Amino acid sequence: MATNAKPVYQRILLKLSGEALQGAEGFGIDASVLDRMAQEIKELVELGIQVGVVIGGG
Fold this sequence. Notes:
Elements: E1 11-16, H1 31-46, E2 50-55
Parallel strand pairs: 1-2
């Protein structure tokens, strides 16, 4: 997205699987994966987008 473009959505919901947070470890939460996701969410918030996050428990 161009830096001066207005986002299409003002509010989004991210549904993440717990498995996505495992990374290559196969168990627990991989801190590097969590950090990357947090940085990407931060970028959305800085654009003025409200972000909700749901982590699956399945």
